[in-house]
Amino acid sequence: MRVTVIGAGTMGSGIAEVFALNNHEVLLSDVSNDILNNGRKKIEASLEKFKEKGRIKSVEDVLEKISMNTDINAQESDLYIEAVLERIDVKRDVLSRIRSDSIIATNTSSISITYLSKFVRNPEKFIGMHFFNPPPIMSLIEIVRGNSTSDETTKRIVDISRSLGKTPVEVNDFPGFVSNRVLMAMLREAIIAYEENVASAEGIDTVMKLGMNHPMGPLELSDFIGLDVVYDIMNVLYNDTGSERFKPPITLRNLVYAGKLGRKTGEGFYKYK
Q1: For the stretch 52-89, what's the b/e string if a residue is b when 16 or more beta carbons lie within 10 angstroms of its beta carbon?
Q2: Catalytic site residue 109?
Q3: CA-to-CA distance for 240 and 227, rounded, in angstroms?
């Protein structure tokens, strides 16, 4: 199967890697060669870890299955996956430029599939395929149908997900689906607790890790996801639901405005080397 992944950031490069690991021909596309090269470096680093653990024999054999191009229509693919920024204007631009009649999936984690389907040629072949970070490791994929998504498209994406060794879960087209509807409310409350000086960042995270058996505390997880991504998702949920439980806290907003986005910039709620 030929797959085009649009967006060479953390999620897009990881999704491309997943398909290449499963012997699919992948085109990874983004707006510049610099971004594509950075995406390739992320894939190489991830594959090296797989090789060290004995999960693959050759990094080069997997990389050969991935080509890169700034033209999203550079090859005719059986499946297109949009994995760009969690912003409607960016996704609208990308989706409207795909000229194929093949299935198009979006990796959105919060935006309405029904709404985004307005920007593709065949809404019945449009679906949400929400991978989790990091895609090569995490087993879950949320499969989200829009109002026009056909049964055939849904079955095809469920089957593809299983063929990748993933566990697909079908959810309905509500703001945040299941994962971020639950997660963002928790992250927001943790940030509010930090903002109100209930405890330090380390204290909040330690309580959640040791008391709730979470592998990663909520503030540490926010840094890992990217505070800009968390902020964008909360804004989508707040605007779509009108619920205060999703309103982005001022502390989060200020960190994003200051360019302190978490691990990827070296500082967020924590500082990183």
Answers
A1: eeeeeeebeebeebbbbeeebeebebebbbbbbebebe
A2: yes
A3: 20
> Is 86 marked as binding a ligand?
yes
Domain 2-172 homologous superfamily, CATH: NAD(P)-binding Rossmann-like Domain (3.40.50.720)
Confirm if 109 and 182 have CB atoms less than 8 A apart: no
DSSP state of 208: I
> For the chain, how many residues are written?
273
Asked whether residue 133 is marked as a ligand-binding residue, the answer is yes
pLDDT higher than threshold 90 for residue 273: no
Answer yes or no: 142 catalytic: yes
SS3 of 104, please?
strand
Where in the chain are the domains? 2-172, 180-265
**Residues facing residue 164 across a β-bridge:** none
Q: Name the class of domain 180-265.
A: mainly alpha
The tens digit of pLDDT for each residue in 198-239 reads 999 999 999 999 999 999 999 999 999 999 999 999 999 999
Annotated binding residue 34: no
Q: In terms of pTM, does the model score above 0.85? A: yes
Tens of pLDDT along 83-141? 999 999 999 999 999 999 999 999 999 999 999 999 999 999 999 999 999 999 999 99
Q: What gap in Å lies between CA 29 and CA 73, rounded to an integer? A: 9
**Which residue is catalytic, options 13, 77, 130, 161?**
130
Q: Which two tokens stand for residue 111?
A: 């935006």
On whether 8 is known to bind a ligand per the annotation, the reply is yes
